[in-house]
Amino acid sequence: MAVIAFKVRLYPNQKQISQMSRTFGSTRFVWNQMLAMQNERYKNNPQAKYQNNYAMNLMLKPLKAEYPWLKDVDSTALQATNDHLHDAFQRFFDPELENGHPKFKSKKDYAQSYTTKAVNQNIKVIDNHHLKLPKLGHVYFRAGRILNGKIKRVTVRINAQGQYYATILLESEKQAFKPKDKTNQVVGIDLGLDDLMILSNGQKVNMMHFDLEAKQQVRIWERKMARRRRNAQKEMAFDKHEKLLLPRTSLKQFPRYQQARHTVAKLKRQVSERRYDRLQKLTTQLVQNYDVIVVEKLNTQGMLKNRHLARAISNAGWGKLVTMLKYKCDWYGKQLIFVDPKNTSRICHQCGQKNHQFDSLNQHEWLAVREWDCPTCGTHLNRDINASQNILHRGLAQIEKEKVLV
Ligand SMILES: [Zn+2]
User: Fold this and answer.
1) pLDDT, tens only, 252-304
2) Residue ranges of the Transposase putative helix-turn-helix domain (predicted)?
């Protein structure tokens, strides 16, 4: 049994569009109400028990009685909102994650979404181009291929450019993918900043500098967008001051500002699509070539605190890369192993001894050391390749240990 997600572009009609925006509004309202309730409870009594998603679902009934328009939208979407808020609180409570407190949602955000849960066949793929969604009926979509399976939930989304998408999550009986042939090859991967990855066989994969290429364009258009927004705000203030009969009151009435906003959103989307595409290709190749892949356990939350590293990390998309590797290894019957990255650069992969020559260096100086000779065995070591070989050794040792335990 595999859980698979498909993203499809939706082409809703006018009636469906207005129903969708009602649902975006209602789920946002429920999110903000529930969040305010949790905050208020805590403020009044810090010992008060946090209300989980089931408790919040029970509160939907009185909320609907007070605000009857909530009954006009898909009720599973309101429950899914409580689930999401609950998840956000769980991440916030988890000391390891160091996530921030859940935030209120604003209707000013151009991108909006809601999730609808499957109950009694209310969601169905009708044919290659029609998806049945609660309260919306048959929505036209375009996509390559959607596998048959039991739909769990669908997230409907409008992006900053005003395009609609649905992410369909389904459980498939069939194994969606044939296991890849065994290659009897193993690899350790060091995730780096100068290079995206260094493999234990010495191969390097370059950093993705898409955002540097596109950065110039994005910056030009962001400046235009800011200037046009300022001008629009001035004109709105002028209309108000002059007491015009029909004053302009919304940024939506300024097409040139909207055009700049769309361009910025488009450029940013292009960067992320290209990045995603590259990661897809890289991870497929790795899963094809190796039976066992060893990577370090990531602690991205901790690292993001270091502001200099943060940009490089978000560019590299390590987290995404590891997630892709994880599900592809599952799909194709390969093994992904996580190891503790501690000291993987300082220990010699030949003799296993830690090099204490660098103990006095600070983080910055230490990062600048690229090559050295091991003081114990004399092996010439390259920082990154040494690390990836240590990662591989640790992974293989872990497999051995598990075999002994079994
Ligand atoms: Zn050595």
Assistant:
1) 899 999 999 999 999 888 888 888 888 889 999 999 999 999 998 876 555 55
2) 4-45
**Residues, CB-to-ion distance under 5 Å, ligand 1:** 348, 350-351, 374, 376-377, 379
Distance from the alpha carbon of residue 195 to the mean position of ligand 1, in angstroms: 24
For 46, the token pair is 């810090």
Identify residue 350 by its one-letter amino acid code.
Answer: Q
For the chain, the farthest-separated pair of C-alpha atoms sits apart, in whole angstroms, at 86
Please compute, for residue 161, the number of CA atoms within 13 A of its CA located in the half-sphere on the CB side.
Answer: 13
Between the CA of 381 and the centroid of ligand 1 the distance, in Å, is 8
Ligand 1: distance of its center to the CA of 389 in Å?
Answer: 13
DSSP 347-362: B-TTT--B-GGGTTS-
Active-site residues: which are they? 190, 296, 384
